[in-house]
Amino acid sequence: MLIFNAILLLVFDVYIFFALRATKIKAAKTKWFSFVWWGYSIALLLGLYISAKFNLPLAYRSVILVAFFMTAASKFIFIVILLLDDIRRGGIWVAKLFSPRRRNESLPERVEELSEPLPEKPVNGISRSEFLTKSGIIVASLPIFPLSWGMISGGYDYKIIRQKLYLPHLPASFHGMRIAQISDVHSGSFYNKKAVLGGIEMLMGEKPDAVFFTGDLVNNVASEMRDYQDIFAKLQADLGVYSVLGNHDYGDYYFGREDSAAKRKNLKSLKETHQVMGWDLLLDENRDLTVNKEKISIVGVENWGTGRFPKKGDLKKALMGTEESPVKLLLSHDPSHWRAQVLDTDVDVMFAGHTHGMQFGVRGEHFQWSPAKYVYKEWAGLYEEQNKKLYVNVGYGFLGYPGRVGILPEITVFELIKGEKPKA
């Protein structure tokens, strides 16, 4: 991934650099422009390499990642504009090459003439290409503002979302039960302990009867939780705090996918961290919740996702012993598990995370959009099919870009309701 990112940024740099040099912008033709342009790119790539290979303080890693994210976004937008202009110019070239009035001209004369710069009518005193280039510079700089604000404010701007879950077979003793869910903590990305604590205090202020955590406690290694486990240990509820593992929790992105002693030790430490915090980590197993001698089942599986993500969970094993339970609530990190396997079971509600809503988009009461929708059919909020439900939490933390734009960090508070959902 690091090599791919470096090559991609280099391709962007070369294309844009020579495009700017070909314009009439005087500054782009100077030596200092070349020095600044390539000096920044080399420094950024070197920073990415050092960040990936060495355990830099989190603040430095965050700055490097944000710089890369904003630079790549701005240059991508600029390249799209430059490509549109090149396609336009190429169309003019082809049209002139096959112009009827030039059919009788010799090919060498035509090619020699067409190899010269294309004359263009000026737009407001400048050529179309120069107009597009200068406009592209302005447009490409626009992402810097929301992305910077997303880093300053959005990453810790916790939002409580309240959701009623209507369950016809819910025992009467559980009517009105409140469950809080968080997901995707990614503690290795945090750099503001006070803000993280503030979010946990917001959650505990809701006084939930139970708390669900749906995976990705860390980015890579268990030690990332060292400075934060005391904060998350504050999550307590009368009926318990239940958790599962996510794809990042296995250490695959740090130790590789192959088994090793170091990888097993890291996973053991992570599981022990759940225990130290007082969380009941469900590894393809279930628990009965009992209120007034009535029961429902909480089921948890290890990570199971479609595509390249780990398929470690064993849903059949996790459901063993729940056959007589009137309601089954499943914790499974990856929402793709719902459509792939869970819909074929009698699970009533699945709680997931994983998508982060890509930490960018728009989310309102009646409308939501994010690039995540082009990757996951179910990426945020509540989904219903075959009288079964899936809720996707967009995450408590962040990964890569240390911020959020439009898709804020989420604390979900569910209220279980006995009965059918009222018709609109």
Automatic annotation (TrEMBL):
Calcineurin-like phosphoesterase domain boundaries: 177-357
Signal peptide (from-to): none
Any one Gene Ontology cellular component term annotated for this protein: membrane
Keyword Membrane attributed: yes
GO biological process: lipid A biosynthetic process
TM segment ranges: 6-23, 35-52, 58-84
UniProt keywords, alphabetically: Hydrolase, Membrane, Metal-binding, Transmembrane, Transmembrane helix
Top-level division of the source organism's lineage: Bacteria
Pfam assignment, any one: Metallophos
Molecular function terms, GO-annotated: metal ion binding; UDP-2,3-diacylglucosamine hydrolase activity
Name of the featured protein: Metallophosphoesterase
